[in-house]
Amino acid sequence: MFNLNDKVAIITGGASGIGLAISTLFAQAGATVHIFEVNADLARQVAEDINGKGGRAVAHAVDVSSQAQVVEVVNAIAAVGPIHILVNNAGVSHIGTVETTVESDFERVFNVNVKGAYNGMFAVIPHLKSNGGGVVLNMASIAATVGIPERFAYSMTKGAVVSMTLSVARDYLKDGIRCNCISPARVHTPFVDGYLARTYPGREAEMYAKLAATQPIGRMARPEEVAALALYLCSDEAGFITGCDYPIDGGFVRLNN
Ligand SMILES: NC(=O)c1ccc[n+]([C@@H]2O[C@H](COP(=O)([O-])OP(=O)(O)OC[C@H]3O[C@@H](n4cnc5c(N)ncnc54)[C@H](O)[C@@H]3O)[C@@H](O)[C@H]2O)c1
Hints:
This protein is an alpha/beta fold. It folds into 2 domains: 8-185 and 230-243, 3-Layer(aba) Sandwich (Rossmann fold), CATH 3.40.50.720; 187-220, no CATH class. The chain is 48% helix and 15% strand. It is built from 9 helices and 7 strands, in the order βαβαβαβαβαβαααβα. The chain has a 7-stranded parallel β-sheet, with helices on both faces. Helix 1 packs across helix 8 (223-234), helix 3 (67-80) packs parallel to helix 4 and helix 4 packs parallel to helix 5 (152-171). The radius of gyration is 17 Å and the shape is globular. It binds nicotinamide-adenine-dinucleotide. Residues 12-13, 15-19, 36-39, 62-65, 89-92, 112, 116, 139, 141, 184, 186-187, 189-192 line the site of nicotinamide-adenine-dinucleotide. Nicotinamide-adenine-dinucleotide (NAD) binds at residues 12-13, 15-19, 36-39, 62-65, 89-92, 112, 116, 139, 141, 184, 186-187, 189-192.
């Protein structure tokens, strides 16, 4: 079950954290994985590693906030053969209230998290349509639906990801395109480590433990746990699922009382 044999998948931000786990698992499940990354060196290393273990992966230097770049690379992949799966995972964070979020930060987070996901869907959906269907999976966050302190811009972007997911799921029902999103609580990735190092220098271990404890289950998720849900949602076994936002949150949304 849950194999992706003969599928071609694009994973944005696929060289680190959750994206790395998804690239690795999708390749193990039989997919050819195209990694779209601003960190091109890291993407090349990840692709080499996957290929060295018998998988199929290709690294592409792509900034998802550039529509021209995304469209060019997607069209080049589609010229070789059909694309079946798009995972819009690339994302950046920002800490701040509305008052401490300056315009440039607002735009930076918007450009990657919102425009990046839009660009991916804008570029890939015409190809999915002409192939008779496919799957889009977007990476949202529990920040889309829960008021997390000092996540003004970040939460805004993840709310938009959930809304875009519903819009696309609705508009492409007749084209056989399923579109869902995943909303993790805290996942232990370089995203979290970078935040702790920047925000709490010298107190990383103490603050890590605090963040871990905010999940009722008592720890953060592992990227591989999110990748397993992504694999299911992108597999044919999930053929009845579209227009859904899946929390994977250790009880964060419904058990924190
Ligand atoms: N880690 C968490 O706790 C958590 C929780 C909820 C949601 N998320 C979401 O999951 C996704 C992945 O997060 P992560 O924790 O694995 O982060 P990460 O920082 O480990 O990985 C993100 C990857 O995206 C790439 N990237 C950033 N900007 C890009 C751009 N413009 N174009 C192409 N690639 C770009 C980075 O180079 C990096 O490799 C993000 O969308 C994030 O918002 C993470």
